Amino acid sequence: MVDFRNNTYFELFSKQNNNQLEVGQSTYSQRIKNINALQRAIEFTFRDQIKEALYKDLGKPAIEADLTEVYPIIGDIKHVKKYLHQWMRKQKVKTTLSMLGASSYYIHESKGVCLIISPWNFPFNLTFGPLVAAIAAGNTVIIKPSEMTPHSSALMAKIITEVFTENEVALVEGEVEVSTELLKLPFNHIFFTGSPNVGKIVMTAAAKNLSSLTLELGGKSPIIVDATANIDMAAKKIMWGKFLNCGQICVAPDYVLIDESIKAEFITACKKWLSTFYRDKPESSSSYGRIVTDKHLERLKLHIENAKELNAIIEVGGDVDASKKYIAPTIISDLKAEATLLAEEIFGPILPIVTYKDLNEAIDYINTKERPLALYIYSKNRSNTKKIIVNTRAGGTCINNNIIHYANHYLPFGGVNNSGIGKSHGFFGFEAFSNKRAIVEQHTFGATEFLFPPYTGLKEKMARFTIKWF
Ligand code: NAD
In the chain, what are the domains? Predict the structure, then answer.
């Protein structure tokens, strides 16, 4: 057995470990009581402070804070409250005939002590969302939010301390070293949201303790706009989905693959919608956010410079004001294959436009890259849509829209391979934080007893009969 006593967080971990079976046995009403307390804190007590923290960290407009941070958590909570009773019930299943005299069911029992590591782009939503699922499933939780959004992390620490006791839920602030130290502990489940590169580090750490794992990662999420698409509608929705939160969204469209015959019309429509959304002045628009840190701004600036060096066309935007952490909504076309914008997840307000002549070309292009978290399709042609879906793999897809699949609690949310492992949201989040325990209850003399040793000739016949008929 590994000795964890020297770990900085061992005492906290032990407190939760000692409490986990009690929390695991909590009733529906006790779990709902905790969830209600969290709801009150987010919806009422701290709502204004949440908006203030998000403005300080990300320049997030107040309405956007309500719509993309507060609302998704409250929506999640309402969904959990509606269905938790049903999810907590034992799930009866059939019993095979060879096990005559027994009945079978499985239960969703808590995993135990869980670790949630969250990113900065939607700090409240991506921390409290998984937390609600973890509490619903009866776990104790240690949270490590991102160091990039310090005002949000400090406020979340305050909320957690007010709502929970340390042996139920605790939040530890800090940088990478804090994560590294926490990840050494034998958590029963780790729920990580962040980049694929750090996801690999988390998975390696989890392997040491064989902790189960949910990885909600990112990557390049493409959009295909085919020649049959409603161009104006596609442009409007893509401009919204790409530039919301300044493109710092895991399911933001990363790049557009468009039939070359409609490229010019599409770009004209994009320009029209951008000027409508941000009244021709995104730098002074209260509806447009900012880049999270100087480091992230520098990374995005280098992408634009690289595109310019390769003689790409800046169709819209391209302006950067580092002193205000501002990058204009930017659309770039005619990129060379080696452009950095086409290699890495952009995670910022820059949209590359790549043209194709034939739909197969677009599908092949996507399949040369890692499997995306989201793949969006704008098309009026059902056979094109079907062709794209069956010939690609992605965590989720919207047809004639983008991003909104994230908000449907009835759908599983998550990636595939490089964009993630495991699913969350609604029941799928509850499932991620639960152990499905299989239970067989023997009521009477069981048929299997006929097959116990000694193995006489009769047993051999019975074995043959069982294989053939049951
Ligand atoms: P990140 O991977 O850099 O950081 C995420 C968390 O991991 C932070 O709390 C950070 O402190 C911690 N961390 C960083 N380096 C670490 C290390 N070496 N060891 C242990 N922990 C470490 O991600 P980010 O920059 O905060 O977020 C952006 C990424 O997250 C993008 O790739 C985006 O697509 C992805 N993302 C995914 C989802 C989703 O639901 N799938 C949601 C939001 C963001």
Answer: 10-217+421-436 (3.40.605.10), 222-410 (3.40.309.10)
Q: Is the dihedral of CA 260, 262, 265, 271 positive or negative?
A: negative
Site to probe by mutation for ligand 1, drawn from 58, 115, 143, 146 as the one with most ligand atoms within 8 Å of Cβ, is: 146
Contacts of 219 (CB under 8 A, 6+ apart): 196, 254, 345, 369, 370, 371, 372, 373, 415, 418, 419
- For residue 145, how far is its CA from the centre of ligand 1 (angstroms)? 9
Q: How far is CA 233 from the centre of its chain?
A: 27
How does pLDDT run across 242-252, given as a tens digit for each residue?
Answer: 999 999 999 99
Is the pTM above the cut of 0.85? yes
Helix (H, G, I), strand (E, B) or coil at 356: strand
Mean pLDDT of the chain: 96
Spatial strand order in the sheet of 222-225: 313-316, 330-333, 350-356, 255-259, 222-225, 374-378, 396-399
- Mean pLDDT in residue range 27-32: 98
User: How many Å from the N-terminal Cα to the C-terminal Cα in the chain?
Assistant: 43
Phi-psi region of 59 (alpha: psi -120 to 50; beta: other; left: phi over 0): left
Question: Catalytic: 216?
Answer: yes
| Candidate list 64, 69, 168, 216, residue with the active-site label | 216
For residue range 301-344, what is the model confidence (pLDDT) as tens digits?
Answer: 999 999 999 999 999 999 999 999 999 999 999 999 999 999 99
Q: Residue 102 in contact with residue 440, Cβ under 8 Å?
A: yes
**Neighbour tally for 86: CB within 10 Å:** 10
Q: Is the pLDDT of residue 449 over 90?
A: no
For residue 27, how many other CB atoms are within 10 A of its CB? 10
Cα separation of 371 and 418, whole Å?
6
Q: How far apart are CA 92 and CA 167, in angstroms?
A: 33
The active-site residue out of 250, 270, 315, 345 is: 250
pLDDT of residue 193: 98
Catalytic residue check, 338: no
Task: State in Å: Cα 354 to ligand 1 middle.
Answer: 27
Pairwise CA distance, residues 161 & 18, whole Å: 19
pLDDT, average across residues 389-399 = 98
Mean pLDDT of 419-443: 98
- Measured in angstroms, how far is the CA atom of residue 40 from the centroid of ligand 1? 28
Is 435 in contact with 107 (CB distance < 8 Å)? no
Among residues of the chain, what percentage have pLDDT more than 90? 93
